[in-house]
Structures are given as C-alpha cells and as structure tokens.
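Lab meeting, action items carried over

1. Structure of the two-component assembly. Owner: GW. Status: complete.
Input record:
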Amino acid sequence: MYELWYWPSLPGRGEFPRLALEAGGIPYRDMAREAGEEGFAALEADMDRTRGDPPFAPPYLIADGIVIGQAANILLFLGERHGLAPSNPAGRLWVHQCQLTIADMVTEAHDTHHPVSMGDYYEDQKTEAKRRAADFRDARIPKFLGWFDRILAQRGDWLAGGGWSYADLSLFHLIAGLRHAFPRRMATVARDVPRVIALHDRVAALPALADYLASERRLRFNQEGIFRHYPELDGE
Amino acid sequence: MYELWYWPSLPGRGEFPRLALEAGGIPYRDMAREAGEEGFAALEADMDRTRGDPPFAPPYLIADGIVIGQAANILLFLGERHGLAPSNPAGRLWVHQCQLTIADMVTEAHDTHHPVSMGDYYEDQKTEAKRRAADFRDARIPKFLGWFDRILAQRGDWLAGGGWSYADLSLFHLIAGLRHAFPRRMATVARDVPRVIALHDRVAALPALADYLASERRLRFNQEGIFRHYPELDGE
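Predicted assembly:
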C-alpha cells in the first residue's frame, strides 16, 4: 500500500496528492497522521533516513519502494498508474502543465504572508506581506485564474476536456484555499472567472469525493499552512 | 522540427530546455531569436493566438503540433522522447523530482530581486530585496545545494547515477546563475558542496555541449533575467 508523508497538522501541499488518492479510490496510509501526536517527529525521522533518493521536502509518496517527492511528480505518477489523467501523450503533458502552473500559484499564495523570510514569523514581515499581497491580489490572481478560465471556455467542463483529471482536483483545492485566504478579493474576481468557479463546484460535488470531503481526514485551513486568512492582506 | 519560444534577450527559464536540446543534438528553431528585433513582438503574438492549449508563460515548445509549456514539462517530454533521462519508472520520476526542485530554487533566486512585486522595478523594492536575499543566501542556498550534494555523495557523478540527464544540465545552469548573482556567497558555499561544483564542471566539459557553450547561441546573464548581479544582495 502507498505511504503518503506530509506534515500532519495542515493541508498544505500534501492535500494535492491526498485529493487524487481519495478521488481515485486508491488505498494509502497517511503516515504522519497515523502517528498522532508523534506525527511531526515521525516525519522528520523518516526524512532523515539515509536514502539514495531522499525527499527534499514533504509531501512524498513511497510506492513500490520508490520515494516520489514533489507534489506534481506524485500526481504524474498517480495519474499514469491509476488513470487520473489522459493516457495519450498530449493530454498527459497538458494536465501536467496545468498542475505545474497551479503549483506556481500555490508558491505565490504562500509568499504573500512570507515574502522575505521563510524561517521568520509572519508578524516579523507584515509590512512586506502587505505589499506582496496587494500585487498578488491585483495582478497575479486575475492572470492565473483568467488563464484557467480561458482554457475551460474552449475545453468545456474539465481542464483536459472529457472527464476530470488530477489537475481539476488541484484547481478545486487552489480555489478553496484562495477563498479562505482572500474572501473579499475572490468575491470580486469570481465574476470574471465563472468557469473556474463552476469547476470548483463540480469537483466539490463528485460522488468519489463526497465521503472524504465530509470526513475528518480532510484537514481544515489554518494559520500554519499555505492559505492563511489575514484580513489585512485581503481587499476587493 | 521543434519550435522553442522564449524571450529573446535573456537566458531565463528558456535556458533549461535549450541546454537539453543542444546537449541532445536535437534540431530545433529558437523562434523569437530568429525574429531578431521583432522577437518580443513575435513571441507575444504567438502567445496571444487562440488555442485549446495556450501556454501560461514562456518557455514553451511546439512539438508535433502540441504546445508544451512549463520548462520542467518540456524536459520531461524531451527526456522521454530523446533518452535524456532514465527510461525506467523510478529513474524517470527521480530526475523529474530533481528538476522540479531546481525549478523551485530558480523561483526563489528570482524573488531575491523581486520579493514583493513582479511588475515593479528592482529599484522600487531594494529594501525588501536585501532582506529576502539575506535569507536566500544564509538559509536557502545551503539547504538546496546541500541536498544535491548528498545525492551525489550516494549516486556518484550524476544525479541519476549512470550518465547525465536533463536535470544535470539544469543543475549546471543553476550553479552558473548563482555564481553570477552571488559570487561572494557561492565562493563560501562551494567548500561545503564540492560534488555539486564538480558536477557543474563536468557538464561544462561535455563534448556534446562544447560548440554551444562557446557559441553566441548561449545568452549571457544580464540584469533583465532571473540571475542578476546586484553587489548589495551578495555577501559571504
């Protein structure tokens, strides 16, 4: 059975492979969360093990003895192995391109509250965060979400056309995160990207995800993660 | 023949697929550069074309009528098609993981001079840049390069073991860029990551790259690109 390793207390980048595993009905163990209060220590100990293929950072998936790091790389693997993406070369690369672009936006969303130092607290970089968040709200959110909306205008309900792929699941989580972090801005932007919002709702209604989304396995957004709600960083 | 599209005046993220194309001896056209002074306009016009698979940003490669965006995705394609990465599943995913981690560091290197606003000039965010660059120099460079050095300690001359892959070419360019941008800091860090430096030198000496590296096709680092030398952002 696959072993997924990620920080146990926040959805973060672990949520992207987790959603694919859940929607695909793929059995897996959520290792750090299984360890309960020892989860952080268990993850750190596992990362410190000497390996020829050490992960740089969580999430990583251990599958058939292989350590697969980088969320988009895990999804590439799951997509091919479990049919969560088109199997033709063009569709496979297209879905991965969408995923990598989602990953870029996730990094930028994180950097709104940590623009100058990853190791310091938000409270120590609030001034810089305000400036970065304004740029993200005004320039980057419309650019990224506008791109996804244009794709859906041409391809229909899903990013690859046809059925859902792992990139659709990821876009759902990205939108959920942005709405949590920037509710006022997203209320405004939603009017310009109706197809992206509809995709979010379509994923939320997938029968394959119903159990998971209603369960405690789905971690809530909080002030430790990538998507944090600081009212001072939001704006219309 | 493949068509590579990227901004014509800087190496940027276009250099990663370009190095793979050159080292692999793969014929390609460098479209915006072929257009000479009209290169920027040609790229922008091509990006604005209505397509079902629009690129979000350059670089992108047009291959067999497919538009492949995201540098790491182009390399995934070239690696599989032209043998620039192992063909076994574990090796293929491992090299892609290395590439995605290089891409993460490239983004962080860029953000040292643009920490709070992508659209504004460096001169308008110098104070924030100093703080972000200090964090990058002190925490991030050792963390990233230390990871690559540990891999090479176990795997030998190349990131995947065996022969070179596209990720080795990319790590070469990353090191070259970091040395350009942060010469003082890299002189210090080099002592702790000798295997990474040796890999850089090994790629620089590849016969397959000799013509390219000596040619005018190889763009020099400059103050428009990702890796910029601002002495005030460097330090031991």
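2. GW to write a short summary for the group page. Key points so far: Chain B touches chain A through 46 residues (CB under 8 Å). The longest strand of chain B covers residues 2-5.
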